[in-house]
Amino acid sequence: MSVVPLPAVRLGNRFARELAELAIPWQAEETPDPRLLVLNEPLASELGLDPAALRTPDGVRLLVGELAPRGAGPVAQAYAGHQFGSYSPRLGDGRALLLGELQDPSGRLRDLHLKGSGRTPFARGGDGLAAVGPMLREYVVSEAMHALGIPTTRSLAVVATGRPVRRETVLPGAVLARVASSHLRVGSFEYAAATGDADLLRRLADHAVQRHYPAAAEAGQPYLALFEAVVSAQAALVAKWMLVGFVHGVMNTDNMTISGETIDYGPCAFLDAFDLATVFSSIDVGGRYAYGNQPLVAEWNLARLAEALLPLLHPDQDRAVELAVGSLGRFREEYAAAWSAGMRAKLGLPTGVSAAVATPLVDDLLGLLRAERVDYTTCFRHLGAAARGDAGPARDLFRDRPAYERWATRWAALGPDAQAMDRVNPVYIPRNHVVEAALTAATDGDLGALAGLLDAVTAPFTERPGLEGYAAAAPEGFGAYRTFCGT
Ligand code: AMP
Ligand code: MG
To answer: Does the pTM of the predicted model rise above 0.85?
Structure first.
């Protein structure tokens, strides 16, 4: 490994230093023929990195972990996790590495992380690799989420490795360079708690407080305050997912962050028709992570975090449980408040409208959407047009016109604000059929469709002529969409 002549790049290794028990020093595998497929120039600039330098051969080698930035000591992170409800005591980064922490120009610490960089000691049966399609999928969906105003890890680049990856077929390999405010997960706490090392658990909690919730350090009970901050962040996050129609698909506790950022885009997808039972993942046969279950699952995952934190909450376990249960109780209230506020915004309701009016109005609309399997995203955007006086497009989505008209009359009487609606109801989301077509083309070497899709979904609220194809619901023949976890 040599030092890269990218003068701005210097990484810290705070995680590896403070939590050595959770960090195995490791190197990325050699990349036979690295080729940059996509670089997030705005994000690079935000991080203080020179996009032009990242496009040079050395820059690309940095993005696959072959050239170490100054200060970098890559590590595979250890974590445990409840996967589909069953506990796995040792998961960890099987095919990922934390390169280190970058201090951006505003002073924020951001993890620079690679996915698909080769087997690590946590790889178990896995090959440590990732394919072009799934890494581009994470890139597109995470950047769309960011543009939608939803907290998420970010994608800096995808580099094709030139190494074939064996899945159901042989696919081209890739490495994703990812940025996050940290990679601390609920599963990190489960792992630390299971070691029985109280000092490690405390150091992990202190690290989380300092990086994400510094105000908790000043609280009477800092670790309870940490837990409550995570509860709040996740309640707000999952409400945003629900409001935009996002289905994460694999909400295992190792895929839930402490920061409240969305992480690990595997079999995720956006709703077409509004249906609480929607499942896209081929491995989620029981529907545990169905669209409508996400708030309950988040709460369940937070209960696992609470269990891990118990030794820090109170020396008396019964008292610790009482405290944790009290704080976990906030999740439902905060989730409900965030979701209701978001729905009011989606309908453009003026602040004076009471809950007694707004709640049944929202419920009745969702009932209509569900009954007729109306496209969720299209409907809310067309309602914005209706608020502006163009009633046709929204009305035409419904077969039972009189039922819709009765609802629309009640709503219009409240004076919805069309402009406010257009700021929260996207025109463009990464629609499954469009994503699929772009990834298939990219896997075959044609990046044009991907560029078009990224252009649409990274400015999701601004309707532009010529981009109608990105706004339209899936064609009839597209069928029930399935995403595969063999990523
Ligand atoms: P996920 O549910 O995709 O977040 O991954 C669950 C666990 O499996 C994590 O510990 C991953 O690091 C590991 N894993 C997933 N795919 C691979 C792979 N191809 N090689 C090694 N480990 C993997
Ligand atoms: Mg994961």
So the answer is: yes
